[in-house]
Write a structure and sequence with these properties.
Length: 372
């Protein structure tokens, strides 16, 4: 039996304070729809949290809306884990590294789509994915979960506003015939609740965020060992832009560059140079050349993987940070970070100056998410 509106509103009154802003900012009708989709109807707890959907999930279940105001938005993880093996991967702090498909993925996403329709849930942004790569060649060519998810989003387009894919492999959609599908996702259909707003601000309905943090292949092979080469990625990005598909370039993470302190370079820590200032200038110039909407950045985090020791590269990068900072490193969210003032002066400031010099807009990663 369908839960009544009154029962849904009673459940809304029990929403945990971390998530209250999403319901407080919605109309009573939308509060009911969001409650039916996200909240555990049969819970006897005094406070309830968004947990219910199968695949089309709350974007970040750990973040309080007061400090991370992402609002009502979704994340779809088409796979579990990632085969790219990037040494700095933040998701290694809470997921295993090996990539696997999700059992019964098509059935699960269809059930969630049916709920979105049945409950008349208002449209919201959807992201693929923040804990895996939706375009891993081995996984996607065998299972096609990402293609299926995008086809279902297109079929239910009025339930979604901006569709965003984050990937290190723009080559797959180019070579495997996904570009027409991505172009179709760029358009909000007639009758979409956000169509006029998007048209007024010229916001795209779809955007591809491509990670391209390195300019030299030596750095890529060390830090992004399983990802496509830089030439392959840049060629694919150009092909995607030639089709009119919006691209955001993620020069992310930002590494310190040598000398890290007086007399010490990356080589003194047994590491290849990751990003010289010339590398960053070339990357920002590339973003300008291809007409990227903007670039996204955040300083490198030294991630402590879940249930396993840090890899040698991360251990050495942690030593670099300790060398750079007279203060204790900041521990937050499962990773070590440079204290803010040091990171801003040594890493972020020079990068932003390059962006200003070249006239390219830059957004911090959280700002980019919130403003999507």
């Amino acid at each position: 039996m369908k839960t009544s509106d009154a029962e849904c509103l009673e459940l809304v009154r029990r929403v945990h304070p971390n998530y209250r802003p999403v319901w407080d900012n919605a109309s009573p009708r939308d509060q009911v729809a969001l409650a039916r989709y996200f909240l555990p109807w049969k819970s006897s707890k005094d406070l309830v949290e968004p947990t219910r959907p199968k695949v089309i999930k709350w974007y970040c279940p750990f973040a309080a809306q007061g400090t991370f105001p992402s609002g009502h938005r979704y994340c779809i993880h088409t796979y579990v884990g990632c085969d790219h093996g990037c040494v700095y991967c933040y998701a290694s702090g809470y997921t295993r590294g090996d990539a696997t498909p999700k059992d019964g993925f098509a059935g699960l996403i269809n059930k969630d789509m049916a709920d979105l329709e049945n409950f008349d849930v208002p449209p919201a942004p959807v992201h693929l994915s923040n804990s895996t790569d939706a375009f891993q060649s081995g996984m996607e060519r065998k299972h096609r979960h990402t293609r299926y998810a995008l086809e279902r989003i297109l079929a239910h387009r009025k339930r979604f506003s901006t569709v965003t894919i984050l990937t290190k492999n723009p080559c797959l959609p180019v070579h495997d015939g996904y570009l027409d599908l991505l172009k179709d996702l760029c358009k909000l259909p007639a009758g979409h609740a956000r169509r006029d707003l998007f048209a007024k601000h010229m916001w795209p309905g779809f955007q591809l965020e491509v990670s391209l943090a390195f300019w030299r292949e030596e750095a890529r092979t060390f830090y992004d060992p399983g990802a496509p080469s830089l030439q392959e990625r840049s060629d694919a990005i150009r092909a995607i832009r030639n089709c009119g598909i919006p691209v955001i370039l993620r020069i992310d993470p930002l590494f310190p560059s040598s000398p890290v302190t007086k007399g010490k370079s990356f080589a003194d820590f047994g590491l290849p140079e990751a990003q010289t200032l010339d590398d960053l200038r070339n990357l920002v110039a590339f973003a300008k050349e291809i007409g990227a909407r903007h670039v996204v950045y955040s300083p490198l985090k030294i991630v402590q993987p879940r249930h396993r020791p840090m890899c040698n590269a991360m251990t050495r990068l942690k030593a670099v940070y300790r060398e750079m900072s007279p203060e204790k490193l900041t521990w937050r969210g499962g990773s070590f970070r440079l204290p803010g003032k040091i990171a801003d002066a040594a890493i972020v400031g020079p990068f932003l100056q390059i962006c200003r010099d070249l006239g390219v807009a830059a957004k911090f990663c959280m700002t980019n998410l919130i403003e999507t």
